[in-house]
Amino acid sequence: MTELNNVSGHSQEEKVNKNNLSENKRSDQSMFIALPPDTPIDMPVQNLQANPNLYGRSKKIATQAPNVLLRRLFIFIVSISLTVYASYEMNLVFNSFGMTALGLMILVIFTILFFWIAFSFASSLGGFIEQLSKKGGLSLGIDPKEPLPALHKKTAVLMPTYNEDPHRVLAGLKAIYDSIQATGQGEHFDFFILSDTTNPDVWVEEEAAFLRFREQTKGHNHIFYRRRYKNTDRKAGNLAEWVRRFGGGYDHMLTLDADSLMEGDTIVRICSAMERHDGVGLIQTLPVIVNGTTLFARLQQFAGRVYGPTIAYGLAWWHGSESNYWGHNAVIRVKAFAEQAGMPHLPAVRKPFGGMIMSHDFVEAALMRRGRWAIHMVPALHGSYEESPPSLTDIAVRDRRWCQGNLQHAMIIPTKKLSWISRIHMLTGIGAYAMSPLWLLFLLVGIMVSLQALFVKPEYFTGTDRVLFPNWPQVDPVLAKYVFILTMLVLLAPKILAWIALLFNEDLRKGCGGATKALSSIFLETFIGGLIAPIAMLIQTTAVTSILLGYDSGWNAQRRDVGHIPFKDVVRDYWRHMAFGVIMGLGAWEVSTSLFFWMTPVLLGLLLAIPLVWVTSSQRFGVFCMKIGLLIIPEETARPDILRRDRIEKRRVMDMEVQDAFSTLLSNPKLIALHIALLPAERSKGDPINADYLVGMVKLKESDSQEQAMQALTSNEKSALLGSRKAIERFLNLPYFS
Asked: Which parts of the sequence are annotated with region: Disordered (predicted)?
């Protein structure tokens, strides 16, 4: 067979290649138009030091709740009152006989940490009240019990993707497409796959998946694909490029993430609300985490489903029309986004704070609100979903990037005319990461206070006046216990409130296995979460430190599929956390046994870091919990339509894998024609020279066959050649075997 294939000019593979090439030339290129005609719109880059252009809009927001100021006063009065009382009691614990430097330090850190949890408690309390109210958090006239409204305007559904598994991404998008079609209003939606993919194999596979998507749905006039050849400004730049090029043809855009799912019914209702309220710039849904199989993912999933609504209702309750944007599962008015959300590059300060804005979603919402557009969250509207990373390791990788983006917001807070609520959003994002190093510092200062008591000679008679009774320096253990109990009550109160709210929500209660099973799941989640917390503290502290030292997080694709993590990899990644726990434990024991037992919850999590991460990364333990009815959610006991559609689509592609780009092209003549039709113009004289392209062309010239060329090319060279018609034609003219 090999000899037959090697016959000069007459092998079967050569005939296929020549037929492919001739078919490419004969093909009607209109069949492979992957994009609609350009409908450009201006999207100016915003000047953060200047007043925004308001285009004559009124300062009054029509959709703002009339009593929102009272709600905000409630949040801050409760938070501040609790913090003042707790700080007063903590001062009595450490400084009852006079202020010391360490006593002052621990008081300041405690005050900041306690305000953080008190603020969360106050917001959750507002959310709890809102959940139990008759309105149930519904706003903007969105009521899922009402008949589905009719749409009149056009919405673009945007799926940005970066080196993701295209089969998985397009399966989810097709589920959304079919769900929208089922509403009978599919003609009001166009779908765009916006690729920033750099991996050449994934790039070509995306094009193949796009072709299949179109053929399956017959949606050639509504489904489009665009790949950028320069990944300027990452995801923010990807969306901005679409807005500037195509935004003029659409009233709204629905932004998705690679793991996003949304019911067609939900999408139609939000788009209808946007049509009815001209002053609304963005409506954010509350995505529910689903499809978790590992124990870690199921913990995240349960917490998001049970505690998440209470938190989200609270945020919507006091944010009003100045809510936030999480970057996906939200409908945005294109006019508002183009007008106000052009991302500037930050002034050149020490890396990584300068340059492009990484966590752009917070900033985009803040700038639209600065331009007097309303930003709303609708937590009561179901049908919005996403997935959780399968392990602590995976979430740490993502968290490192988010950490950098949130710390970068320190440069955004001084923006001129920014709403004070938007500034709080930024501070909250920064605080989410700053609390970890503060918590660690609090523990270390506590050890130092104990060391001071052990080694520093106390002064029993202080001052110049002679006194009859000495001042006995001591830490009041009874008062310290009360402060600890108060702290734990405030910390755990949002979970308690969420469970009480669950009792009044029949669907949620039954979907979580009943009140008792739900409470048992809360105990399990709290226990394991408490053990993971000190590990996460060290992870985030390390991230904050490295960012402040100037190390960039880069841009890597997120691992979404569940995969076994070898135990040796867990040991490699977490032995330092375990060693740190051993050192802290030995130090605390040497200083004081009471200090050791006080630090036991933290030490236990660190000492168990390796087995804890390994166990929570396991599907086996996650499935076991599901079988015994723990950590379950309603979306598992009564699967919504969009999740059923998604499961069917993913099963269809579960055996498909990303192949070599050239092999994928050779297997599909239509794909070759599409790929060539989408390529940019060839390089002109004076354009930048691509060294990978030059080396790749030399390798093609020196290769005797396609097989030899594929083995010789590096990933960068392959990517460069796939961007050139001349290179592809030269490759196709080679015999398959030498």
From this structure: 1-25
